[in-house]
Amino acid sequence: MSTMQVAPSVFWNNSLTCAITPKSGPVRKLTTLADVRSALLSDLPAGATKQPHWLHAGMLVVAASESGDSTDIRIATEALIDALEVEGWLSAEPNQP
Q1: Are 15 and 31 in contact (CB under 8 A)?
Q2: Which residues of the chain have pLDDT under 70?
Q3: What is the 3-state secondary structure of the chain?
Q4: Domain limits at 46?
Q5: With contact defined as beta carbons under 8 Å apart, do 30 and 58 qualify?
Q6: Do the Cβ atoms of 49 and 40 come closer than 8 Å?
């Protein structure tokens, strides 16, 4: 019996349920799970991924990238939309702290 583990398949190139184009804020247009990964790593302000809405969305994006399942991708897309709405970035004027 081998002790070698096989890495899970990843589906970073899968498309989101719909393209997401923020109207304000630092986040780029999101069309694939890979776009989201890049945005979470590069676009958000330092420490933002520790906020509950981004942490939740990020965990769902990783789960969707591992499964490739359309339901997981839909749920991740909805969580991203929710996170962007919390920030106010889906409107032309971002929410003020």
Answers
A1: yes
A2: 1-9, 93-97
A3: CCCCCCCCCCCCCCEEEEEECCCCCCCCCEEEHHHHHHHHHHHCCCCHHHCHHHHHHHHHHHHHHHHCCHHHHHHHHHHHHHHHHHHCCCCCCCCCC
A4: 15-87
A5: no
A6: yes
Closest CA to 30 of 95, 77, 93: 77
Angstrom distance (rounded) from CA 39 to CA 61 = 12
Q: Residue 53 falls within a domain, yes or no?
A: yes
Burial 39-56 (b: 16+ CB within 10 A, else e): bbeebbeeebeeeebbee
Provide the domain count of the chain: 1
Instruction: Identify whether 30 is part of a domain.
Output: yes
What is the per-residue pLDDT for 20?
97
